[in-house]
Amino acid sequence: xxxxxxxxxxxxxxxxxxxxxxxxxxxxxxxxxxxxxxxxxxxxxxxxxxxxxxxxxxxxxxxxxxxxxxxxxxxxxxxxxxxxxxxxxxxxxxxxxxxxxxxxxxxxxxxxxxxxxxxxxxxxxxxxxxxxxxxxxxxxxxxxxxxxxxxxxxxxxxxxxxxxxxxxxxxxxxxxxxxxxxxxxxxxxxxxxxxxxxxxxxxxxxx
Length: 207
Ligand code: HEC
Prior knowledge:
Blueprint: H1 2-31, H2 48-51, H3 93-102, H4 111-129, H5 138-141, H6 155-158, H7 161-170, H8 184-200
Helix pairs in contact: 3-7, 4-8, 7-8
Bound molecules: heme C (HEC).
């Protein structure tokens, strides 16, 4: 008796499942019955040119959307790009000192950061400062001062990250500014990589 009852229950369960799948199948099939060339009713048709059929303009093109007919618009005054921290330092000794005191490197010297820092350093700094920061890059060999920054006794090893960030951002004397070529986060990462060079360099023998 017990087993028969159990079997009955099981059947009912299966039956329900079959009905449900049939219903889902029917619903999904019927909902697909729509002739594309005769679209369904539109909800708020007067809004749709804006919401659904907006005319996308390609970048660097001329279009009729804006008054000056250019797709690339100048950002509204006072806006700043995402991930960009505006700096308010002056490009002189005072500004450098202030940056050294106020700015903190937002990155930790983990593997990923140092890996990126190495790429940035080797792309932008090595031509003058050399692979180890000894000031013996190719440009330095051809006459421009290369300035050693990669050894523990160099000034660069004693200054805080913010101070170096200021030098890379604003430049100093013959060293040009890298603000437009290296984005902020990469500048910080290059500095962390430079720190590893300074730590691994052997101090020069004392005279
Ligand atoms: C075009 C060559 C050149 C490149 C490229 C260059 N530098 Fe320099 N850098 C210099 C020169 C020259 C000086 C010395 C400037 C001066 O006399 O004030 C200097 C100075 C420095 C100093 C200060 C050193 C000190 O003891 O006063 C730091 C730190 C520094 N550079 C870091 C970097 C970093 C980091 C990069 C890469 C993002 C870089 N530099 C790329 C030429 C360069």
